[in-house]
Amino acid sequence: MNTQSLDWPRKTREMHNHHFDSTIWNDLPMRDDDIVIATYAKSGTTWMQQIVGQLVFQGAEDVDVGEISPWVDLRVPPKAIKLPAIEAQTHRRFLKTHLPVDALVFSPKAKYLYIGRDGRDVVWSLHNHHARANAAWYEALNDTPGRVGPPIEPPPASKRQYFLDWLEGDGHPFWPFFENVRSWWEIRDLPNVLFVHFADLKADMPGEIARIAAFLEIDVDKERWEAILSHCSFDYMKAHAEKAVPLGGALWEGGATSFIHRGVNGRWHDELLAEDVAAYEAKVLAELPPECADWLANGTQRDAAAPVAA
């Protein structure tokens, strides 16, 4: 393929809020072998970081992905601290972003993994993440200098109300969901972009990891394959959660194991009313192309019951 003739994405805006400072990407020199893990949030991000870390380090024990795979556009710590730390890394870097494509500086040389998950499952995982945040989490996001816009407040106890606020408020209190999915879907056919779905990872983790390895052009030592699979399992990640979670889980009540919570889909079935489901599905069809809407709900395979890390 002649990549010189492709229409590569261009950054057209900045995003700022209690979490984001997208300007950091303007100042980050990209390397040709960089890997960027992109999601909305709570779509399997940490699981994908673990998978990529295991592939890069060939199944090594206790790879500290929470430390070495930073969320680049998170505004804390500030870029004056974060950028030198990223640039000092000598291994193949795998970076995390929750930005839509048009707020990101896109490199034609880097590899991009986009992970999707049904929005209802995203919100249920997001509520756990938000409800267990401790005072240090709020202090870091709300009180650190440079915040743009209102502070983030504690969530309502009702998961249904949290979902309705998120749906009606276009991702409230975090950031828009559908524009994130749509922006990445529009570039899914680029040769350096791979789409992965949470449900597919659950249904066939070995097959999906093999597909990811091929995309990243990583030759896996056959003798390390079983170790890689073991270290990417829910049980292993739960037992070693402090190595997968930012700051070892210090910002959440219950620590790292509360961050890697249950990792199952469909919990919303017990709490959403029929009209809530109908409102969500109508919103999906209004915001996304039909093929994208189907992929977001189902992936390329049907869901399975086994738990995974989220």
Automatic annotation (TrEMBL):
Entry keyword set: Transferase
Pfam families: Sulfotransfer_1
Gene3D superfamilies xrefs: P-loop containing nucleotide triphosphate hydrolases (3.40.50.300)
InterPro entries, per the entry: P-loop_NTPase, Sulfotransferase_dom
Residue span(s) of domain Sulfotransferase: 32-278
Family stated for the protein in its record: Belongs to the sulfotransferase 1 family.
Protein name: Sulfotransferase domain-containing protein
Superkingdom of the organism of origin: Bacteria
